[in-house]
Specification:
249 residues, alpha/beta, Rossmann fold, 7-stranded parallel β-sheet, 8 helices, 7 strands, 48% helix, 14% strand
Length: 249
């Protein structure tokens, strides 16, 4: 890859993921962007290739294990070495109380936010090992450590993701693979739009999240990405297994 480090970013088409991809591309990294098929994903592909023709986007629905398997095989065949992985993709729905969440909705969120992380990592692990030094970052949330009413699926997925990160940090040490989690704070993304679209009946904290927007407390994806990049690309083996908060960086 012409000596340039390769980083894979999920949830690449919008929000924090898109900003991370663009900043990394501008900084000289080869970027692999993964997200569901969309016009935004294709426009990202054009942007990335301006900086490096080796960069590539792959459409993939992380709710579909078979698609993850197929995309993982394609990525391995094209990129024999991957120097970093940023598991950023995530969804917030269902926003509803435990008895009012359907089993399918609850399971779908756990698949996208947690199980897909394991499935994708397992698929591309040989390329991670081949790099001889791979940095893995999972994008977490305050909901990983604080329960939120009507967010049982999301809170559970993020708590599980943090423990998965610690397990990868432990197991990956022998392969020079580090793993950290980062809570990005409150960011002005589509997820916040979805939260504000929930009804007060389903989500009692709804007024608080409306106030976050109205009072200007939401940070832009570009601002947060800029803060995250140094840790995403350069965190050390000694920091592996740790949790970081963007507000403390």
């Amino acid at each position: 890859m012409d000596g340039k480090e390769v980083f894979l970013v999920t949830g690449a088409s919008k929000g924090i993921g898109r900003s991370i991809c663009q900043i990394m591309a501008e900084s000289g990294y080869v970027v692999i962007g993964l997200a569901r098929e969309s016009k935004e994903l294709q426009s990202l592909n054009e942007i990335l290739k301006v900086f490096n023709e080796k960069s590539k986007v792959f459409p993939c629905d992380l709710s579909n294990p078979e698609e993850i398997k197929q995309i993982g095989t394609k990525i391995k065949s094209r990129f024999s070495k991957i120097n970093g992985v940023i598991h950023n993709a995530g969804i917030i729905d269902p926003i509803a109380s435990i008895p009012n969440c359907s089993n399918d909705e609850w399971s779908d969120l756990i698949q996208v936010n947690l199980i897909a992380v394991q499935q994708l990592t397992r698929q591309i692990y040989p390329s991670m090992v081949n790099s001889q030094r791979c940095r893995v970052t999972t994008i977490s949330s305050g909901a990983a450590v604080n329960s939120v009413e009507s967010w049982s699926a999301y809170c559970t997925s993020k708590a599980g993701l943090e423990m998965w990160t610690k397990c990868l940090a432990l197991e990956g040490e022998k392969d020079n693979i580090s793993a950290i989690s980062i809570a990005p704070g409150i960011v002005d993304t589509g997820m916040q739009d979805a939260i504000r679209s929930a009804s007060v009946e389903d989500f009692p904290m709804h007024p608080r999240f409306v106030d976050f927007k109205n009072s200007g407390q939401l940070k832009s994806p570009e601002f947060v990405a800029e803060k995250l990049i140094p840790l995403l690309t350069n965190h050390s083996m000694s920091s592996s297994g740790n949790r970081f908060d963007v507000r403390e960086l």
